Amino acid sequence: FVQQTERSLQLMTQRALEAESNVEKLKQEIFILQGELETSKMENKNLRAGQTTDLRAVKHNIDFALQNLHKIITGANWSIRQLASGAESLNFVAEILKSTGKISEAEAEED
């Protein structure tokens, strides 16, 4: 039982670490896309100021940035849910291990 619990704990820890890694990657992608969005906003501002910029290109850039940002947000939300689920599982395993320790102590006292 303890070995199975330890294996579960290792698996859940690995899943939590992978989810954290995914969150970090997604944060980096969000940062890049926010930069692209700011660039598109500046191009839009310049267009409104009368500078020559292709309106369709600006709209395309903004749409592209927004689509990618939405995909990244969706992925980040999934990773956060995975991370939270892993944390809940780790807490459950910790409680089981704590209970196992109390049972072992009680058995040792009986002997």
UniProtKB/TrEMBL annotation:
One of its GO terms (biological process) is positive regulation of protein localization to cilium. GO terms for cellular component: centrosome; ciliary basal body; early endosome; midbody; recycling endosome. The keyword Coiled coil applies. It comes from the Eukaryota. The keyword Coiled coil applies. Residues 2-43 form a coiled coil. This is Endosome-associated-trafficking regulator 1.
